[in-house]
Design goal:
Elements: H1 7-69, H2 73-77, H3 80-87, H4 91-105, E1 110-115, E2 118-124, E3 144-150, E4 153-165, E5 173-181, H5 183-247, H6 263-283
Antiparallel strand pairs: 1-2, 1-5, 3-4, 4-5
Length: 284
Amino acid sequence: MRGQTGKEMKNLMLAVSLSVLLLVLAIIAYFMVDIIVTTNRNSEHNRQLVIDESVVSLTEMADNITSMSSNPLFAQIIDPALAQRIIGGDHAVMYDLIIDLAFVFYPVEYVGLVDNGELVNYGSKPGLDIDPDEMPLEPYPESYQTLDEFGGESGFYISTFYSIPMGILGLGDLGFNLVVDRTEELNEIDEYFRNQRNDLIVRLSIAAVIAVILSLLMTTVGLRHFTRKYVVNPIEELNRTAEEIADGTFTGEVEVNKDSAYAALQGLLRSGQKVLKKMDEELE
């Protein structure tokens, strides 16, 4: 009997192995999902930071142009002949000047000027196909709008719309539409977090394989060893002792370990041994 593995023992090892394996896989799955969710959340957070910083920069640029246009020195800085034409009511020259200044202040893709709900002038970087009818003529519900395509080019663009006072030139407020390209920055953010996520998943996968192998070893070899040592062997020893007592070949006295889970069986065998011994003495 010793050295054999019964059906119950096999079922026990299988049940424990599957339970531990499922637990390990559940833990691994949790951490993988957590890595993906956390990485995506951090990526979105950094994308939003890029958007916010771009909007702030465009706002500051609009404020600078506003401050400059309201400064009396502005008329003295520009070419006198040009200033005279602007003062004389040549709005086209003024619009061109504002657009040129906008491109100098910030690397924007597009600048549009709106006066009384009409796009009066615009400028863009070379290569962009701008449709004036598709450009905004009033502020966005929020301070900006993100675009997945602009001027026939796919990417990530941020469009803002502000009003700038032109009182020094005898005009009202002008709508100021700016579009900036943030495709490269967003691609870098996405690539960074994608690589970070993939690296973590690879390392976690390697750790998962190791954990699965170790858990299987522990729940098969380890479980079999310790179950045989602390469960099967003591039971086999009790069974052998009972057989020897019944055959009359057992020598010595059955030991009872009070701390053992088998103390009751050991006590029962000892009592049986005494009864058989007494019966043998009476027969003699």
